[in-house]
Design goal:
The structure is a homotetramer of 208-residue chains.
Chain A (H helix, E strand, L loop, with lengths): L1 H28 L6 H7 L7 H4 L3 H24 L5 H18 L1 H10 L4 H6 L5 H18 L8 H20 L7 H14 L12
Helix pairs in contact in A: 1-2, 1-4, 1-6, 4-8, 5-8, 5-9, 5-10, 6-9, 8-9, 9-10
The structure holds a DNA duplex (21 and 21 nucleotides).
Chain lengths: 208, 208, 208, 208
DNA sequence: AATGAATGAGACTTCATTCAT
DNA sequence: CATGAATGAAGTCTCATTCAT
């Protein structure tokens, strides 16, 4: 029995090693330019071994995406559940997005580069949209904030677009080193702008 | 002389046809998965002909990018120059972004997909960053609005991130048909949110 | 009529220009690596024009070879005819070979590189062997020297091999600059060796 | 362990099979006209397999050349070392040249065709001149014969030119079947001519 | 007669995938 | 289970040749 557990672990470990390697390699070179051998080498296994765990290159991409998104999302959900105030949960979400993704830079590039893949891919895999799940969660947080009266009656989906689109963009700028920026600082500034809007605050307004 | 003009036109036309085809094909399949023959077929020419106008596949990508960005940006700048109020210019910018890019849907995907290409590409072409130019322009509009007191004293770069990141994201969602949405409507909602923030408007606030 | 002559000349001139360009370009890059456009450019004409004078690339090669060999051979024959002594004619031949070919370096490389072309070529063109004509002439000179008793009774073909093979080799070494050598000097040394052999000459022997 | 040896052998065998195929195919069609697939087919492997053993087509050419020349030269040197008399060594050299190369006919054409490649190639690979090594060895044999007084005081390099150039030429004529000849017979005749020169032997001379 | 833009066949090379060991 | 040599399909790019002007 112990042997069986060991094997199970081995198998799981190797699978995970391949997935981790795939995320980094796909992010670094893009899905099409990355080679299976690059992934295998990074995972310290032989090229053919990848095919013992994944049907083909595309399967590896899909599974890597799913794991990435859902593992991050699960982590985020767990932490957020500790916040009581719905507005705080929304703000916390922004910070967590930055925190979790900036911890492993390649995950960001992997997500933003690959999730909007080719038409071909999405037409062949219409059911596959891991990012949708993420976006839906942010939308639900917005809806909640609206329902509890924490924020005004605005379209929760639109707000989700702003949050996810902006942070996605900021992280990409940061990760490609196109310009020097501190994602945490920007996240905070974004939060401020979203809270009060761009209008010049009336002297008597702010009460945060 | 007419002959000369004709030839000139022919040559320019073909170059443009290839560039247009390239934008669509690169956007549809992604740069690496798109083939030169796909581009040639879409442009109604033979595969080898592409190489009479462009040095190689990468040259075609770079030139296509440059033309796309700079032609859109020039159009936007021209229209915006007619707006006098600096806040109006910023709002107009959002609408124009949607308008111009949604007119040629593939341009959007082309930009957002290819602009954040592989490390490899950007490390080999560090000087090449047409998107930066775009972002810089939006930043300058924000700065202007701040300087003229139209909006509060916030970080203009951050605001530019929000505007470009959000609209980029929205357009991508729209173009990949991941979900049904009206980009104009969303643009307007984004504008509203940015104006007042997400806080519940006080009864005495403006009633736009 | 003058017009006709003019045209005739024009046509002949352009044909010659192309042939000359072909010899140089073929010699420089080898037949297969040379391009028709290289030849055309060197001849200051457009690429398509070559096909008004030659059926195709291979035809250009054959005609260039024939002209090269036969024009050199004709020149050699004419000069040699002035020599009366048959041994002198043979020695003169060696010098002329060097002289004529070293005058236009590319002709040498063209000949030695291209005349032993691919099996394919010779199997398709069995009648084509311009070098054979050259070798035959040298052989006839040897035969003559034997018949007149100028040299011993040896195989004239073998002697021709030695003469042509050696000088061909020497010129190639010279032209490829593989090593510094004076082809005239070598030609003279070859003549000496052929005259007396490599044996240590007996004191009483030489009477040249 | 046996397994390891087996693999080693397999790998070496395949590399050799490709090299042998390359020599024949390059010789038959010339380097530029030969295709990698021709080589692969002759070696009974798939086209892509060539690239597991050689970086590219040019690498295959260079390695093939080096192996050809050095393996022949090593064989020749070994056999020649058994001859004591320096003149015999020189004569033996001529015979060995014919013997070794006529055993694998394509090697000859390969050498003589490719060795004097295009300017381009040699300018890019100035250090590469395997034939030089061969010529140097023949020269050293000549020098030795001179030093030991076996032959007269003549330029050893010139004599090497005659030997290598002539036999190279003869073998090429033979291999291209341009004319029917027995290379061994010709080699012997060449030896005779070199020994005594072309002069009519005096009645009292030696009777070899 | 001359041009040179256009064509498209074919070469080199890469790499996802398989399979014997 | 793991390996990595082998495969061969497919992509980029070149260039001989044609043809409308």
């Amino acid at each position: 029995m112990k042997r069986h557990v060991k094997r199970q672990t081995d198998k799981t470990d190797k699978r995970r090693a391949i997935l981790d390697a795939a995320v980094e390699v796909f992010a670094r070179h893009g899905f099409s330019d990355a080679t299976i051998n690059d992934v295998a080498e990074k995972a310290n296994i032989a090229g053919g071994t990848v095919y013992l765990y994944f049907k083909n290159k595309e399967d590896l991409l899909i599974q890597a995406m799913n794991e990435i998104i859902s593992s991050r999302l699960a982590e985020i959900k767990k932490i957020i559940s500790h916040e009581i105030n719905s507005l705080d949960r929304l703000y916390k979400m922004i910070l967590l997005h930055v925190e979790l993704f900036s911890r492993n830079p390649y995950v960001v590039k992997f997500m933003v580069s690959e999730w909007r893949q080719s038409d071909d891919f999405y037409q062949l895999n219409p059911e596959f949209n891991p990012f949708r799940e993420y976006l839906d969660y942010v939308t639900s947080l917005c809806q909640e904030a609206i329902d509890t009266g924490s924020i005004g009656k605005l379209n929760p989906r639109t707000l989700a677009y702003i949050i996810v689109g902006t942070m996605d963009f900021v992280l990409t700028q940061w990760i490609t080193k196109c310009e020097p920026l501190d994602p945490y600082l920007v996240a905070d500034e974004v939060r401020q702008i979203l809270r009060h809007g761009v209008h010049i605050p009336k002297p008597e307004a702010d009460g945060s």
